[in-house]
Amino acid sequence: EAGVTQFPSHSVIEKGQTVTLRCDPISGHDNLYWYRRVMGKEIKFLLHFVKESKQDESGMPNNRFLAERTGGTYSTLKVQPAELEDSGVYFCASSPQGGVYYEQYFGPGTRLTVT
Amino acid sequence: QKEVEQNSGPLSVPEGAIASLNCTYSDRGSQSFFWYRQYSGKSPELIMFIYSNGDKEDGRFTAQLNKASQYVSLLIRDSQPSDSATYLCAVNLANFGNEKLTFGTGTRLTIIP
User: Fold this and answer.
1) Which of A5, A12, B76, B77 could link A113 by a cystine bridge, Cβ 3.0 to 4.6 Å?
2) Does the distance separating the beta carbons of A103 and B105 come in below 8 Å?
3) DSSP string, chain B
């Protein structure tokens, strides 16, 4: 079974540009989460989808971040316009609905560098 | 006060010894507790989870939970060089509609051959 995949693995953009990150969860997983790790800090929650609906977006830092999950499958996270402080590693995780003990499986992350 | 606190390390342990990793959390409503292992540049990998007070053993790993003290730990017996990684403690309120994980900063563990 394929794990959580993320694309791209690394992105370098200039301040003010737009970047779109993609996450493909494990097949059949209704829950999809986005997290971010800024250098030197802990991994922080951004938002949670259940199928195509946003269950919790309390961690989204501001309106420059837009997440979508079309048809309840893959998800995209767009940053527009990017700022220097957006640099970090963006992780996606998924878990099955009604899964045992809320185990979340993480993808390899996208390293975003804003210059 | 951070919601989840871990000693950042690095923690160095001789091969074959017991590695002890500690974590405290601030929210008494926390219900579930997870230990993730992360190798450099890789994704966090779940290795243990615990929900009830006491010990839970899985192979060389033992998770210990004390909700009264708001403390969770991970013991790694017979440490191997392959155990060298960053260990992340995460907690979950496990309330309906609130399944986000809150992480500590992680403890970097090095097993010395």
Assistant:
1) A12
2) no
3) --SEEE----EEEETTS-EEEEEEES-TT--EEEEEEE-TTS--EEEEEE-SSEEEEETTEEEEEETTTTEEEEEESS--GGG-EEEEEEEE--BTTB--EEE---EEEEEE-
